Amino acid sequence: MSTPASTPSTPMLPYTQDFQWCRTSTTELSSGDQEQSQKYSDIENEIIENGYNGKKTEVEIDGGYVIDLHRKLQYKKDDPSQQHRIERFQLSRDRRNVHLRTERFGSPVTLGAPTSSSQQSNNMKDIAYVMKHGSLPSVYFFQAVYHKDKKVADIVEEAAQGIVKEGKAQEKLHEAQWLSQQLLAVKHFGDNVPAKFTENPCKITETCIYLFTKNSFWYELFNRTLREATAITPERIETVGPFALLLHTHLFKDHPRDTETVYRGLGLNDEQRKEFMKTKIVFTAFTSTSRNRTAAEMFGNTLLIMNLKDDHMSKRDQCGANISHLSHFPDEEEFLIWPGRIFHFTGYEYDDRNSKHVIYLSWSNSDDLFNLQSDYV
């Protein structure tokens, strides 16, 4: 009998993934065919590996599939005749992610824009604020936490419930349950701890960062909610907001200030490129960048070179954080920029050698989101 992933008794900390499960389109898969087979997603791989290590006979994954660990088969729950051979491969310990993940580092980046009067009248004020400045953490905090005597454990519970609710709607319940279980495993670190906008227990916020670096339905939905105006609803603020606040809290900590330049590759046409060459631009979502220029140049026809150094900023002024040490993929050298950061266009050139448009941006704290919150509060 297949079983869902069990709730972990201890918090999951970042670790090196040593095994990859794969499936093939046929019932045949030889030991050397890893590259010719289809890899399970990050969380599917976790569910299967946890079941394997737990000596389970079967586990379920989304899509109505059952993984028979004894016979090493994947079959359809409502039609067992639909079978695929599966295999477990040992990953090389001396491996490196030369290529950044396209969906994370090469997907389109949506910039903020002023909201129209019709949008203001048709939506709640907080939704319009998110659309303009990209600060879902701020909206959720002032709407659901501020002056409400909430504990951090309450927010963790709400975040876990939000993931499961969205998972059901997206038909990704097993994936959602696994993600929520990782959060609930660290919930006790927030017992009796007052919830704050800029300071919450490390074990909880680090777990959020780690889960955010995994490829999952949650990562896609989370950033789509911030990138697309139509995805922002009162319900999404309720389901996505708690996780956004916890993620934001970690980025706001006093991280080492050793990263001065980060990079992001994009595929842009001329009109889209002009949007990045305005005097000021606002990144509305949590935006993944890399400290590795060579890796970022693999994507698109345009390279953003983003200067993070501001001579006028105080010790606490930051626009994001290096999260590579917490990432499921540390070799991507990810620097995560939080929503609402304002950058200034400082220059453009065309790189003939690499056939690449290069846009230079510089972050300035003087007119960043936290100085714009008077628009909302």
From TrEMBL:
Predominant place of localization: secreted
One Pfam family cited in the UniProt record for this chain: ART
Provenance organism: Didymodactylos carnosus
Keyword Lipid biosynthesis applies: no
InterPro entries: ADP-ribosyltransferase_ARG (IPR050999), ART (IPR000768), WWE_dom_sf (IPR037197)
Localisation per UniProt entry: Secreted
GO cellular component: extracellular region
Coiled-coil blocks: none
EC numbers: 2.4.2.31
Family (UniProt): Belongs to the Arg-specific ADP-ribosyltransferase family.
Reactions performed catalytically: L-arginyl-[protein] + NAD(+) = N(omega)-(ADP-D-ribosyl)-L-arginyl-[protein] + nicotinamide + H(+)
Ligase as UniProt keyword: no
Protein name: NAD(P)(+)--arginine ADP-ribosyltransferase
GO MF, one example: NAD+ poly-ADP-ribosyltransferase activity
Keywords attached to this entry: Glycosyltransferase, NAD, NADP, Nucleotidyltransferase, Secreted, Toxin, Transferase, Virulence
